[in-house]
UniProtKB/TrEMBL annotation:
Keyword Transmembrane attached: no
Subcellular localization(s) per the UniProt record: Cytoplasm
Gene name of the record: pcm
Name under which the protein is recorded: Protein-L-isoaspartate O-methyltransferase
Protein EC: 2.1.1.77
Free-text function comment from the UniProt entry: Catalyzes the methyl esterification of L-isoaspartyl residues in peptides and proteins that result from spontaneous decomposition of normal L-aspartyl and L-asparaginyl residues. It plays a role in the repair and/or degradation of damaged proteins.
Enzyme class, spelled out: transferase
Family: Belongs to the methyltransferase superfamily. L-isoaspartyl/D-aspartyl protein methyltransferase family.
Amino acid sequence: MGVKDSYKHKGMRRSLVRKLREKGIANERVLEAIGTVPRHVFFDEIFESHAYQDKAFPIAEGQTISQPYTVAFQSDILEVKPGDKILEVGTGSGYQCCVLLELGAEVVTIEYKEKLSLLAQKMLGQMGYQASRYLVGDGSLGCQEYAPYDGIIVTAGAPIQAVEVLTAQLKPGGRLIIPVGDLTTQRMVKITKVSESQIVKEEFNNFAFVPLLGDKGWKK
Ligand code: SAM
């Protein structure tokens, strides 16, 4: 790994994992991935002490790196198996993408803001991670080019309209994890496409994400 990752950082990651366990995350593979990916490298050095607190933090372009609990929760219910093809909508910093890669997924990640995509691509390269594709574009429409997917994870708050087009890009057995609601609060929703004619919808707790923009997202 071409980034600084000291004993101090590793120790802080272990306590973050303990905290996530206390908050109810029980998926050992996800906890191991969170315990492996250095989150501090996504922070300016002066803010490094915030990297292993369980909170979201501002990144460039007015966006955020998601809270570790949120990353762990979404990764858990996504049920990633090694070799799964996962579409991530909202590359942001690239941290969630690293967690998916640690889980053995093949990741196609799409980001609306080109600057963030380029920064994430550079950072992941330095860390020794490699997504299959770093795309710039409107992920509210998914990405038909590489569909169908075993899983789709949306890391921005979506209106209900985004669900149908994304569900259509799942394989049978595929899962869509998407925060659905208004501009301030969203309920985490999991859609499992059991077969082409049957879907199962589950709803979880409330979360607060930055808005999903684009055609099926919120208009600026
Ligand atoms: N997964 C990210 C991480 O680990 O840092 C967190 C992403 S941040 C909470 C949400 C991201 O979604 C932002 O970077 C934002 O620019 C992006 N976004 C918003 N609307 C989008 C769209 N229609 N397509 C792709 N990305 C979008």
